[in-house]
Amino acid sequence: MSENTTEVAVGGLVLALAIGFALFVFQSTGLSSSSASYAINASFRSAEGITVGTDVRLAGVKVGSVSALDLDSNTYQAVSVLELKDDIRIPEDSALVISSEGLLGGNFVEIIPGASFDYLASGDEIVDTQGSVSLISLLMKFVSSGQDR
Predict the structure, then answer these.
(1) Contacts from 74-77 at CB under 8 Å and sequence distance 24+?
(2) What's the pLDDT tens digit per position in 62-114?
(3) d(Cα 33, Cα 69) in Å, to the nearest integer?
(4) Which pLDDT value is given to residue 144?
(5) What is the DSSP letter of 67?
(6) Residue 32: what are its φ and ψ, rounded to 5°?
(7) How far is Cα 15 from Cα 75, in angstroms, rounded to an integer?
(8) pLDDT at 61 over 90
(9) Contact (Cβ atoms closer than 8 angstroms) between residue 65 and residue 51
(10) What pTM was estimated for this model as a whole?
């Protein structure tokens, strides 16, 4: 009988550890995001390097993420939806830039705040956007300009 009790106790301990680990993963990855958020829209000429789930940062601090990314078949621009924390107010004349964390780092969407006293509301659009800069195209321009001499 004591063998059965030990097996049940060890099984219960393993189950408790598995549930604790699952809760830790949900909290640390932001999957259990219970904080309120609002959506803003933006169109980029090129959204190269960002996908759904990419961080949106303001002054280097994560304030949201990209929740949708699609192609507008009329303008041929990448249309994105950004989910921002509800307590972060963004001036309406702000700009968005797709930035890189470094030469080998990933990309993120950076908010460059404006000076307006009016703030974006849910569903508003940021018009001033700049797509990512392709390192390959910059190198190709440098190499081709050196061959012209």
Answers:
(1) 75/43, 77/43, 77/44, 77/45
(2) 999 999 999 999 999 999 999 999 999 999 999 999 988 877 778 899 999 99
(3) 20
(4) 82
(5) E
(6) -95, 35
(7) 53
(8) yes
(9) no
(10) 0.67
Report which residue type is found at 84. Answer: L
- What residue has token string 């304030």? 63
Query: Quick one: average pLDDT of 30-38?
Result: 68
How far, CA to CA in Å, does 64 sit from each of 40, 78, 82, 134, 135?
11, 18, 7, 24, 26
The first and second tokens of residue 138, run together, are 């910059």
- Which CA distances in Å does 112 have to 4, 40, 83, 123? 63, 15, 16, 19
Strand 55-58 relative to strand 37-44, pairing: unpaired
| Kind of pairing between the strands at 77-85 and 128-130 | unpaired
The span from the CA of 73 to the CA of 56, in Å, is 25
Q: Which residue has the tokens 């961080």?
A: 55
